[in-house]
Amino acid sequence: MAIWHGDIDLDAANQSMENSMPTYLGMKLTELGDDFIVGTMPVDERTRQPFGILHGGASVALAETLGSMAANMVVDTTKFYCVGQEINANHLRPVVDGEVTGKATAVHIGRTSQVWEIRIHDARGKLNCISRITMAVVPVPAR
Fold this sequence. Notes:
By secondary structure, the protein is α+β, with helices and mostly antiparallel strands. Helices cover 21% and strands 41% of the residues. It contains three helices and six strands; from the N terminus they run H-H-E-E-H-E-E-E-E. The protein starts with 9 loop residues before the first helix and ends with a strand.
């Protein structure tokens, strides 16, 4: 059974990220399972640090994007929205080129908070970063 609120359209979700950091860094949502979301990001001049490897901040940006998108897909966005409260990441191995793929899965979905784990792999399937994000579930202000 899917955890998502309503029918999720990946094309619409990707369009919602236009003109923001995910688009600038080349991120794309690529798959939506019953309880996970997957996205990719290139390892290129936009995402490398000066030593020629994937910047840890770019990995964290991918993790936060996947966790945030997933968290907001779980709630009724006419009543709630989700924002990041805390994120951590362990950078396990360098990536010099190609593309990385992140998969976000829910650890906890509560009434006022959510916790998501994001595992990021290189093109060979090697784990290069593991991250966890805590999201606050906030009521939409009354108008």
